[in-house]
Amino acid sequence: MPRSPTTMAAIRRLQPGRLTVIGTVLAVVAGSFAYAGGWLSPDRISPERVVNALSARGGNPVGHRRNHSKGICFTGQFEANGAGAGLSTASVLAAGRYPVTGRFAIATGDPAAPDASGRVRSMAIRIAAPNGQEWRSGMNNIPVFPVATVEAFYEQVLAARALPATGKPDPEALRAFAARHPEAAAFNQWARTAPWTTSFAEESYNSLNAFRFIDAAGLRRSVRWSMRATLPQAASSQEALARLGPDALEQDLETRLQAGPLRWHLVVTIAGPDDPTEDATRAWPADREQVDVGTLIVERAQDEATGPCRDINYDPLVLPTGIEPSADPILLARSPAYANSFTRREAEQGRAATGMAKPGDRS
Amino acid sequence: MNARSDRFTPLQRGLHWLMAAMILAMLFIGVGMVSTVSPRYWQLVSIHKPLGISLLLLVLIRLWQRWRHGAPPLPEDLPWWQRAAALASHVALYALMLAMPLIGWAMLSAAGYPIVLYGPLRLPPVLPQDAGLYTLLHRAHAALAYLLFLVILLHLGAALFHALIRRDGVLQSMAPWIRRPAA
Ligand code: HEM
Ligand code: HEM
Ligand code: HEM
């Protein structure tokens, strides 16, 4: 403490109780801040922890997405036919053509993974309206998600992590996960029995999570949507895909696009009154009303390293007015996790380019 | 700067307390939302952006009021270093109040996100999409937020020091309804 006479006089006058009051107030404010920030609850599942787990599944994802790490950019158009305008006021659903920047990927943590190692494939799109509004969506080629909560997702990522000794997940951990999570059965059934294809173009991609469409009268309807392939599926196998080479899916896409654009139909399914909107492990009955709202036309593909999708975060909560998130906890967990992954890879861009990335990095 | 009074104008006081509450809320919401994957994230981030941009408007009004009306003089007997600390911390608080929302806005621009405030209410980007700029701004937004919290703690400590220990009327210049205790 400084010793100016006024201060000394003040200190002499002070009752220790008053200093304690000040100290207590400051400690309470600082303590609440630490609590809000999660520093006092190390068990809280933070985006940081989820993305750390995703980053440690083998391979080197530095500079890349921490999930769906291997992919290829595309550009094209969304041609809205206007049928969606009755369901949602979203500007990209009004009849018209809107530019699309998208990405196909396989669900892996390793940007150098061979294509045959990815059971799950994805399409991500950003549709831009002239008024600056955007619709971003990340969709998978699976009918249901394996888990219903982010806690279970985190547990699954940890259970499926490759052991350093074998390069494979611990079978015991996988069994224990399956026993604790019977809700993953529908997904597992799909993974075991659905045909493998050798093309991104033969797959349909599903939003899985529910959203709400709001129409001009303010009526909210729960929906899920799908990008339906227009090409028939040629059933193949994992082995056949492996024989085509590690980058077969990307090569296939480029070859097909040289011959002309590829098309998908964006089909919106409207929930029945009792359909689950907060549980992505449960499909809706097949007879629900479906509305084809337009066609996605994929025109060009581009490597991710120099392509326009590299620096886009396909955060599923970037939505135009007229579309709202549902209360599905998986959907609401995706946004913070994607943001964390995005922030990391953007910071790593420079590093990957100047050779500071660890060996094994592809870029 | 007109005639000096021993308290801030009602508008200045109103803005001070309103913004104090809002800024503390912003800091708590900010650290809360980046540390959770629960459904609270979406609620918090949907409050964080419009509340932060409202603060940008309020701080502009506040700086204008400060320039027009000035501030009451500090007590004559305040040691020089406390005067200096008061001045430096107030300058820091104004600078951070102005910088934080601007950085938030610029950060979202550099990330290529649409900047949604509420419903159709959106802001235009103020920067082109750029990984390097985004990284810089994201780090600045977090680092300066912690600095702001620290300065607020010091400011709060100093205000209580004036109120409870020096009992010199400084708190009353901002909170005239509080009775000044006898020394
Ligand atoms: C809690 C559950 C989930 C977590 C934690 C999670 C996490 C992630 C992360 C961190 C990324 C990388 C984001 C980036 O850096 O840009 C990603 C990508 C992706 N995720 Fe998820 N995800 C989850 C659930 C889902 C679901 C339900 C879908 C469903 C359809 C999905 C589809 C995708 C797609 C398509 C991508 C690739 C986007 C792109 O190509 O950029 N994810 N996920
Ligand atoms: C978020 C929090 C806060 C911010 C950003 C903030 C900011 C400021 C600023 C910039 C000034 C300088 C006014 C000027 O000279 O133009 C000021 C003055 C003042 N603040 Fe705060 N404040 C905050 C919270 C508080 C709290 C919690 C208290 C008290 C318990 C407080 C008490 C005061 C007092 C007494 C003054 C008058 C100082 C003087 O006479 O020069 N403030 N505040
Ligand atoms: C007074 C104004 C503001 C304060 C005090 C503030 C405070 C904070 C804090 C404490 C964090 C958490 C930092 C961390 O630990 O990573 C944060 C994050 C964030 N802020 Fe602000 N903020 C302000 C204004 C804004 C504005 C105006 C916007 C946008 C319009 C914004 C957008 C964000 C976003 C998107 C994040 C999350 C970043 C991420 O995903 O990591 N903030 N803010």
From TrEMBL, chain A:
<keyword id="KW-0349">Heme</keyword>
<dbReference type="GO" id="GO:0042542">
    <property type="term" value="P:response to hydrogen peroxide"/>
</dbReference>
<dbReference type="GO" id="GO:0020037">
    <property type="term" value="F:heme binding"/>
</dbReference>
<feature type="active site">
    <location>
        <position position="68"/>
    </location>
</feature>
<dbReference type="InterPro" id="IPR011614">
    <property type="entry name" value="Catalase_core"/>
</dbReference>
<dbReference type="InterPro" id="IPR020835">
    <property type="entry name" value="Catalase_sf"/>
</dbReference>
<feature type="region of interest" description="Disordered">
    <location>
        <begin position="342"/>
        <end position="363"/>
    </location>
</feature>
<keyword id="KW-0560">Oxidoreductase</keyword>
<dbReference type="Pfam" id="PF00199">
    <property type="entry name" value="Catalase"/>
</dbReference>
<comment type="function">
    <text>Has an organic peroxide-dependent peroxidase activity.</text>
</comment>
<dbReference type="GO" id="GO:0004096">
    <property type="term" value="F:catalase activity"/>
</dbReference>
<keyword id="KW-0575">Peroxidase</keyword>
<feature type="domain" description="Catalase core">
    <location>
        <begin position="55"/>
        <end position="362"/>
    </location>
</feature>
<dbReference type="GO" id="GO:0042744">
    <property type="term" value="P:hydrogen peroxide catabolic process"/>
</dbReference>
<feature type="binding site" description="axial binding residue">
    <location>
        <position position="338"/>
    </location>
    <ligand>
        <name>heme</name>
    </ligand>
</feature>
<keyword id="KW-0408">Iron</keyword>
<dbReference type="GO" id="GO:0046872">
    <property type="term" value="F:metal ion binding"/>
</dbReference>
<dbReference type="InterPro" id="IPR024168">
    <property type="entry name" value="Catalase_SrpA-type_pred"/>
</dbReference>
<comment type="similarity">
    <text>Belongs to the catalase family.</text>
</comment>
<protein>
    <recommendedName>
        <fullName>Catalase-related peroxidase</fullName>
        <ecNumber>1.11.1.-</ecNumber>
    </recommendedName>
</protein>
<keyword id="KW-0479">Metal-binding</keyword>
<dbReference type="InterPro" id="IPR018028">
    <property type="entry name" value="Catalase"/>
</dbReference>
From TrEMBL, chain B:
<dbReference type="GO" id="GO:0022904">
    <property type="term" value="P:respiratory electron transport chain"/>
</dbReference>
<keyword id="KW-1133">Transmembrane helix</keyword>
<feature type="domain" description="Cytochrome b561 bacterial/Ni-hydrogenase">
    <location>
        <begin position="7"/>
        <end position="176"/>
    </location>
</feature>
<feature type="transmembrane region" description="Helical">
    <location>
        <begin position="41"/>
        <end position="64"/>
    </location>
</feature>
<dbReference type="InterPro" id="IPR011577">
    <property type="entry name" value="Cyt_b561_bac/Ni-Hgenase"/>
</dbReference>
<dbReference type="InterPro" id="IPR052168">
    <property type="entry name" value="Cytochrome_b561_oxidase"/>
</dbReference>
<dbReference type="GO" id="GO:0020037">
    <property type="term" value="F:heme binding"/>
</dbReference>
<feature type="transmembrane region" description="Helical">
    <location>
        <begin position="85"/>
        <end position="108"/>
    </location>
</feature>
<dbReference type="GO" id="GO:0005886">
    <property type="term" value="C:plasma membrane"/>
</dbReference>
<keyword id="KW-0349">Heme</keyword>
<keyword id="KW-0813">Transport</keyword>
<keyword id="KW-0408">Iron</keyword>
<dbReference type="GO" id="GO:0009055">
    <property type="term" value="F:electron transfer activity"/>
</dbReference>
<protein>
    <submittedName>
        <fullName>Cytochrome b561</fullName>
    </submittedName>
</protein>
<keyword id="KW-0812">Transmembrane</keyword>
<keyword id="KW-0479">Metal-binding</keyword>
<feature type="transmembrane region" description="Helical">
    <location>
        <begin position="143"/>
        <end position="165"/>
    </location>
</feature>
<keyword id="KW-0249">Electron transport</keyword>
<comment type="similarity">
    <text>Belongs to the cytochrome b561 family.</text>
</comment>
<keyword id="KW-0472">Membrane</keyword>
<dbReference type="Pfam" id="PF01292">
    <property type="entry name" value="Ni_hydr_CYTB"/>
</dbReference>
<dbReference type="InterPro" id="IPR016174">
    <property type="entry name" value="Di-haem_cyt_TM"/>
</dbReference>
